[in-house]
Amino acid sequence: MKNKFNVKKNQNLSYLIFGAVLCTLPLWIELGVLKNSYLTLIGSVLIYSVAAIGLNLLLGWSGLISLGTAGFMGLGAYIAAYVTVNLKLPFEVSLLLGLAIPLVIGVLVGLISLRIEGLYLAIATLSVSEILRKSFEELGWFTNGFSGKSAVYPKLLGFITLDKYTTYILLVFFLIAVMILVNNLINGQMGRALNAMRGSEAAAQAMGVNLLKYRLVAFALATSLAALSGVLYMSFIKYTYPATWTLGMSLNILAVIIIGGVRNLYGTVLGAFVVFAMPDLFLKQIPYFGTMPGFAYIVNGILIILVILFYPRGLIYIGNDFKKLWGKLKARVAR
Amino acid sequence: MSTFLQLVLRSLETGSIYALAALGIIIIYRTSNITHFAQGAMGMFNTFVVTYLFTSAKMPLWMAILGGVTTALISGFLVDFIIIRHTKKVAPISKQIITLGLIMIFVGVAPFLFGVDPLNLPAILPNGAVSIGGASISYNGIFNISFGLVLMGILFYILQKTKWGLAIRTTASNEATARLMGVPTKTVTMVAWAIAGALGVLAGVMTAPFTSVNLNLMDGVQLNALIACVLGGFQTFYGPVLGAYIIGIVKNLLVYYVSSVWGEQLLYVGILIFIVFRPYGLIGKKIIKKV
């Protein structure tokens, strides 16, 4: 029982503490320590982390590659906007619908995934995403077409109207909830089944893992997390247009996982920070190159390739490796 | 009838663009075992080079295109030499993601070198049209269709009849065995990347007159070429080419006769249903995995 309050042993506790630390951000901004724009920046990092954790479940743990994240994020965002703005229903309903509809499509894609593998699956999910994006452009009554759709900050339980800071707290809440949920899932029976599936499908099947069930669950979870991230996007950024949800967005989410760390939740958040916040925080400060159009894109591209070639486990393990190196150095000095 | 003929002719033109891009993707896939997601981005980049040589350096168009093909060959060569060659030990999924990183680099470098404003590139044969059976097609359209067919004919001749083609086919079927047999697989892979680059820029130059030369020039081509590969199957060189023409024709027919808004989506849904029933494409065979 002593372990219950040991942060290193108790993952859930560590996520809660992480969440509490994130929640202090508005405080720092009010105190004037950090710039106001950082709130939007870190908020979007949290939003993209949710989608990336979903994709990590699929790519990292189940070994199924999907290029359709952006389509499902967009679907979630548009449903949220349509339900709250056009139908004037509460935020909770938009959350439910925004998760349920993409979930159904995700299950359908999961069914297709039973028949096809590897890059065929990647391209199949890419075309699903493309179908969704084209539909966003055409369904004017639903998405307001090219001119884009706006929304308002959510109103919880019908009477608590959120502002910028409290919406940010809501984002933190959802991210931590997702992290705890996914952490518990992957450390349970499901995680083991997914690991076995990734290693060898035939062996997993022989050991009695139900491929249909776990593939569907993995796809359903990944798509609904992507959609959740879309719903959060809509309540925090409050504006979207079809060109946001292209292949480029799916690639960015993929980059998040590869750079941060495959099969690591903190790694995913770190990756989201590197991909989505670093360009604005640091790269723009660099003289000459900072103002160059597309510089962030180049850095991310090079980073992906370097990480894959030289650091395939992801940047999150850099701390451990430094510790090991430090230990070795100390041992050498002691001798 | 003449509208139908017109549609088919127009589709053959877009079909040859898709076919050139798809051929590049399949050559890379067969020799390096990588799905080349950056085919479009590299084509876009080198089309920018062509446009730059044409508008800013005032070269004649054919010379600009030759210049673009040269940079395409060089960029393909460099990508293999600097990156792909060192990925022997990298996991298969990560290999695909490397090309995603390449997209980011090419899309990022292009505005740095050529500015953010979209540019214009004229067609190779700017005016004139002929009428075939009531359907009119521009000289440029005829040129694109026949150029695509001739180029692919030459490539298939090289693949099937020459020693180099044999080397490429052996590398494609089994890289380790090919190396043991004395095939210089490293050079073969490098040549494959260079050829894919050249095919990409040619597809880009053909696409450019329909729109402006911008960062998203090749997005549609890339997507349709990938889907063509899925439709035709990744096991043969000619499957994707066939798939590309089918997609070109079916897309235009659906857009014209069924719905101008939903035609393209219908095509993608149809292809999704198709792979559920034939997961290895039109020509592909089922790969039997050993456990």
Can you describe this structure in just a few lines?
Chain A has 335 residues and is an all-alpha fold. Chain A has helices at residues 11-23, 25-31, 37-61, 69-86, 91-113, 118-138, 140-143, 164-186, 189-199, 201-206, 211-236, 247-260, 265-281, 295-310, 318-334, and strands spanning 149-150, 155-156, 160-161, 239-240.
The low-pLDDT segments of chain A are none
Which strand order do you get reading across the main beta sheet of chain A?
A: 1-4
Tell me the fraction of residues in β-strands of chain B, as a range. under 5%
Low-confidence stretches of chain B: none
CATH architecture annotation of chain A = Orthogonal Bundle
Query: What's the CATH first level of chain A?
Result: Mainly Alpha
> How are the strands of the biggest sheet of chain B laid out side by side?
1-2
Which structural category do the helix and sheet elements of chain B fall into? Answer: mainly alpha
Summarize model confidence as the mean pLDDT of chain A.
84
Instruction: Compute the separation of the termini of chain A in Å.
Output: 40 Å
What is the overall number of helices of chain B? Answer: 11
Q: Name the overall outline of chain B.
A: globular
Taken together, the total number of domains of chain A comes to 1
User: Roughly what fraction of the amino acids of chain A lie in strands?
Assistant: under 5%
**Largest interface, counted by CB within 8 Å of the partner chain's CB:** A-B, 47 and 45 residues
* Gyration radius of chain A, in Å: 21 Å
Characterize the biggest β-sheet of chain B: 2 strands, antiparallel
CATH topology of chain A: ABC transporter involved in vitamin B12 uptake, BtuC
- Structural class by SSE content of chain A: mainly alpha
* Oligomer status: heterodimer
Total number of beta strands of chain B: 2
Helix and strand arrangement:
The complex is a heterodimer of chains A (335) and B (291).
Chain A: H1 11-23, H2 25-31, H3 37-61, H4 69-86, H5 91-113, H6 118-138, H7 140-143, E1 149-150, E2 155-156, E3 160-161, H8 164-186, H9 189-199, H10 201-206, H11 211-236, E4 239-240, H12 247-260, H13 265-281, H14 295-310, H15 318-334
Antiparallel strand pairs in A: 1-4, 2-3
Helix pairs in contact in A: 1-8, 3-8, 3-11, 3-12, 3-13, 4-5, 4-6, 4-11, 5-11, 8-11, 9-11, 12-13
Chain B: H1 2-32, H2 39-55, H3 61-82, H4 92-114, E1 129-132, E2 135-138, H5 139-161, H6 163-173, H7 175-180, H8 185-207, H9 219-232, H10 238-258, H11 263-277
Antiparallel strand pairs in B: 1-2
